[in-house]
Design brief:
Mean pLDDT: 86
Number of strands: 2
Number of helices: 3
Distance between the termini: 43 Å
Largest sheet: 2 strands, parallel
Low-confidence stretches: none
Order of helices and strands: EHEHH
Structural class: alpha+beta
Strand content: 5-15%
Strand order of the largest sheet: 1-2
Length: about 70
């Protein structure tokens, strides 16, 4: 019988790297551990992460944000 994975609810900090946003080293070092867990996130956290991406888009980086990718 397979052992059930522990469940963890992550905050926005852990979603940001998937969207190309740099985060603290401690956050990045924890992400590889997610393979052993059942990871959950709130829809509000995803919305907050997207807001952070668009908030950081300026100057040369605005192109991909403006173009939608």
């Amino acid at each position: 019988m397979e052992r059930a994975k522990c469940r963890v609810l992550i905050d926005t900090s852990f979603l940001l790297p998937a969207l190309g946003v740099e985060v603290e080293k401690s956050v990045m070092s924890a992400i590889p551990l997610f393979g052993r867990l059942r990871v959950y996130y709130l829809e509000a956290g995803l919305l907050e992460a997207l807001w952070k991406v668009f908030e950081n888009c300026s100057g040369e980086q605005a192109g991909p944000c403006r173009d939608g990718y």
